[in-house]
Design brief:
Radius of gyration: 22 Å
Number of domains: 2
Largest sheet: 6 strands, mixed
CATH architecture of the largest domain: Alpha-Beta Complex
Helix content: 25-40%
Distance between the termini: 23 Å
Shape: elongated
CATH superfamily of the largest domain: Glycerate kinase, domain 2
Oligomer: single chain
Order of helices and strands: EHEHEEEHHEHEEEHHHEHHEHEEHH
Number of strands: 13
């Protein structure tokens, strides 16, 4: 019996690898001889680089770059096992993890450090890139990244604007004469599950700004800034980002990649699945276990569990979902291909308690799922031996 374990991280608690290990431990408690395959997943956000590097036996390079609020932060970029492909997460340099909750500043936060990561990789000779979007603390449309790579964003007096989405309304001209000449010779695969446009009610500022500390007043300023930025980009390049799907990813940096880089956007989960060879493993699998920290309505919009479920459907393999929390009414997810959805909270407990004990709770939940699943299918089909640890 072959079981694929393909979860995302439980944010604030366990990374995807740790989740997979806990689920595997629970499965082995019930079914010691199970053939389990751990395939940690991500959707282009945090964890994507680590998973791709680990999957391909690559390496990471630790560096110091400019953080979201202008201070120096520790970041990294990855090199895949082929030695030719560089993986960069926007979150590594420009992510929310670099900013304390009481210091969130969406009007000032910059993607300058992400541009520095790209420049360092270019200096090392890389020409093929995978860029993971997600988890950014920024809403600057990628302006900071472009500045780090040589673009000059000038105000009406011909002076460089400052950092952050709050400065975008001051852009009077975009000077690309010193923009890094190596970029047009490179290939950029942009991994993201976000389809939002750059501006408007479904744009970067309105949908994602509040997660980065933006008040209602901030959202208005940021959206106006991105609209002006999109107008200036259109005047400079002829490309209109305003309603472009995916341009709103990571505070609008998705749009910058679409216009200023030779790039292709692809769902992050599909990129990770390709490198982990999920399809190959699914061909002879009996069941898949996936999950993430919270299963809710957004899980239907291309996030990691849904990507795994879609892949499993193609091979007729049923899926079980385990989450830290399950939104009420989410049973609409359950169908022919989804056996069941489970929360790891097996008794009344606080969120803090669930997070602190996530590994053991995951193992226990996985064990009970496997015991139930094999009791229903086993035993009249194949006589699988379920371990009795009681």
């Amino acid at each position: 019996m072959k079981i694929i374990i393909a979860p995302d991280s439980f944010k604030g608690s366990l990374n995807a690898k740790e989740v997979a290990e806990a689920v595997d431990r629970g499965i082995k408690n019930a079914f010691p001889k199970a053939d389990t395959v751990q395939l940690p997943m991500a959707d282009g956000g945090e964890g994507t680089m680590d998973i791709l590097v680990s999957t391909t036996n690559g390496r990471k390079r630790d560096v110091s770059v400019t953080g979201p609020l202008g201070e120096q932060v520790s970041a990294a970029y990855g090199v895949l096992g082929d030695g030719k492909t560089c993986v960069i997460e926007v979150a590594s340099a420009s992510g929310l993890d670099h900013v304390a909750k009481d210091r969130l500043a969406p009007l000032e936060a910059t993607t300058y450090g992400t541009g520095e990561l790209i420049k360092l990789a270019l200096d090392e000779g890389f020409t093929t890139f995978i860029i993971g979007l997600g988890g950014s603390a920024t809403n600057d449309g990628g302006a900071g990244m472009l500045q780090a790579l040589g673009a000059k964003l000038l105000d009406a007096d011909g002076k460089e604007i400052g950092f952050g989405g709050g400065e975008l309304k001051r852009v009077h001209a975009i000077d690309l004469s010193e923009f890094d000449a190596r970029i047009p010779t490179c290939d950029f695969l942009i991994a993201s599950d976000v389809k939002n446009p750059l501006v408007g009610p479904n744009g970067a500022s309105h949908v994602f700004g509040p997660q980065k500390g933006a008040t209602a007043a901030h959202v208005k300023v940021l959206d106006q800034g991105l609209t002006h930025w999109a107008d200036m980009v259109a005047d400079t390049t002829g490309s209109y980002l305003h309603d472009c799907p995916g341009a709103g990813a990571a505070g609008g940096i998705g749009g910058a990649f679409q216009v200023f880089f030779p790039s292709e956007m692809k769902r992050g989960i599909e990129v990770v699945q390709s490198y982990s060879r999920l399809d190959k493993h699914l061909k002879d699998a009996d069941i898949v276990v996936t999950g993430e920290g919270r299963i809710d309505s957004q899980s239907l919009s291309g996030k990691t569990p849904m990507g795994v479920i879609e892949a499993a459907q193609k091979h007729g393999v049923p899926t079980v979902i385990i989450a830290g929390a399950v939104e009420e009414g989410i049973t609409e997810l359950i169908g022919d291909s989804i056996v069941s959805i489970h929360s790891i909270a097996n008794r009344p407990m606080s969120v803090e308690e669930s997070i602190a004990n996530a590994s053991d709770l995951l193992a226990f939940t996985a064990e009970q799922i496997i015991r139930t699943y094999f009791y229903q299918t086993k035993i009249h089909q194949g006589g699988y031996q379920i371990e009795n640890n009681g």
